[in-house]
């Protein structure tokens, strides 16, 4: 049986604009965000020093792996290895704690 979908009119999506949206500034969201940030900061502080430094250079300073390597006088592969390990450790930590 063939259904002629082309003959149907598209759904009106104006109702989407009327849906209430939860504000990210509500106390529940702010508390959850604060806890998540604190939890993540603790996990980052548990990383080995060089991994932590590279991670913060990459995330906070916006440096590329290549820029980090050049700044530290290391090879790209060393930075890649350390950041790969850092991200893997953070993923394991988050999964273990079910944030």
What does this entry look like structurally?
There is one protein chain. The longest helix has 22 residues, at about 75-95. It is elongated and about 55 Å long. The chain has helices at about 25-45, 50-60, 65-70, 75-95. With about 100 residues, it is an all-alpha fold. Helix 2 crosses helix 4 and helix 3 packs across helix 4 (about 75-95). The chain has a domain at about 45-99: Orthogonal Bundle (Arc Repressor Mutant, subunit A), CATH 1.10.10.
Short description:
The chain has four helices and no strands. It has 99 residues and is an all-alpha fold. Helix 2 packs across helix 4 and helix 3 packs across helix 4.
CATH superfamily of the domain at 43-99: Winged helix-like DNA-binding domain superfamily/Winged helix DNA-binding domain
Average the pLDDT over all residues and give the rounded result.
81
User: Which value, in Å, is the CA radius of gyration?
Assistant: 23 Å
Our measurement of the CA-to-CA distance between the termini, rounded to an integer number of angstroms, reads 48 Å
Please outline the major beta sheet: none
* Class based on secondary structure composition and strand pairing: mainly alpha
CATH topology of the domain at 43-99: Arc Repressor Mutant, subunit A
Give the SSE string.
Answer: HHHH
| Helix content estimate | 55-70%
Per DSSP E runs of 2 or more residues, the count of β-strands stands at 0
Unreliable stretches covering 5 or more consecutive residues: none
Shape: elongated
The CATH architecture designation of the domain at 43-99 is Orthogonal Bundle
């Amino acid at each position: 049986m063939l259904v002629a979908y082309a003959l149907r009119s598209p759904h009106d999506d104006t109702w989407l604009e009327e849906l209430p949206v939860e504000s990210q500034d509500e106390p529940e969201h702010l508390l959850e965000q604060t806890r998540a940030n604190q939890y993540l900061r603790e996990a980052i502080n548990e990383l080995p020093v060089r991994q932590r430094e590279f991670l913060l250079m990459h995330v906070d300073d916006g440096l590329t792996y290549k820029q980090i390597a050049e700044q530290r006088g290391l090879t790209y592969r060393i930075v890649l290895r350390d950041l790969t390990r850092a991200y893997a450790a953070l993923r394991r930590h988050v999964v273990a704690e079910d944030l």
